Amino acid sequence: MTSESPNALYFASLRRLFERTPALSFVKQTLEELAPGQARLALEPDDRYNNGAGCIHGGIIATVLDGVGWFACATRSEGYWLVTAEFKVNFLEVASHERVIATGELLKKGSELFHARMDARTEGGRHVASALATYTLLPRKFRP
Amino acid sequence: MTSESPNALYFASLRRLFERTPALSFVKQTLEELAPGQARLALEPDDRYNNGAGCIHGGIIATVLDGVGWFACATRSEGYWLVTAEFKVNFLEVASHERVIATGELLKKGSELFHARMDARTEGGRHVASALATYTLLPRKFRP
Amino acid sequence: MTSESPNALYFASLRRLFERTPALSFVKQTLEELAPGQARLALEPDDRYNNGAGCIHGGIIATVLDGVGWFACATRSEGYWLVTAEFKVNFLEVASHERVIATGELLKKGSELFHARMDARTEGGRHVASALATYTLLPRKFRP
Amino acid sequence: MTSESPNALYFASLRRLFERTPALSFVKQTLEELAPGQARLALEPDDRYNNGAGCIHGGIIATVLDGVGWFACATRSEGYWLVTAEFKVNFLEVASHERVIATGELLKKGSELFHARMDARTEGGRHVASALATYTLLPRKFRP
Question: Does the record carry Hydrolase as a key word (chains A, B, C, D) (predicted)?
Answer without folding.
Answer: yes
